[in-house]
Specification:
162 residues, elongated, mainly alpha
């Protein structure tokens, strides 16, 4: 039965990694759930410790912060005004409801609309939108790296089944 739970955990980790790139699945939450389920089903002597689970939880929370703030910081880096940066955040919040495309396009549209509200020209608004898109792509890469770090922490702290 132990091998079954190991296999199930590895499958959850794989789905979680896919979810870090595809916003349809809450990737790092699935990885955290896999580690927690492994702990519950196999017990403390054969699984991850509570300290490690706390670290995984903090990393999971960090990825959610990245989801909302990456577009903001990208727009800021490319010279957006406060209107553009707030537009990127609002666009990200609204974009969540439209799946993968919404998460990438929402902050871009929000940043552009925010810049238009601030009275900026199309070039400045486009630059803010581009920055928001670059920020979101950087955030996605960071989430993937955090997911890999979470899985590495799990495998380094859990004794192998064989």
């Amino acid at each position: 039965m132990e091998l079954f739970w190991w296999f199930f955990t590895v499958v959850l980790f794989a789905v979680g990694l896919i979810g870090t790139v595809l916003p349809v699945f809450p990737g790092t939450t699935i990885i955290l759930a896999g580690a927690g389920l492994h702990r519950v089903m196999l017990g403390p002597e054969k699984s991850i410790g509570w300290r490690s689970i706390a670290v995984l939880l903090l990393l999971t929370i960090a990825t959610y912060a990245l989801d909302f703030l990456s577009g903001y910081f990208g727009a800021k880096y490319f010279g957006a005004t406060k209107w553009g940066m707030w537009g990127a955040i609002v666009g990200a919040l609204i974009g969540i409801f439209f799946g993968i495309i919404g998460l990438f396009i929402g902050p871009v549209i929000g940043a552009i609309l925010g810049e238009f509200i601030a009275g900026k020209r199309m070039v400045d608004a486009g630059r803010a939108g581009w920055g928001s898109l670059i920020g979101n792509l950087g955030g996605t890469i960071a989430k993937l790296v955090i997911g890999l770090v979470m899985i590495t922490i799990f495998f380094m702290t859990v004794p192998p089944p064989f």
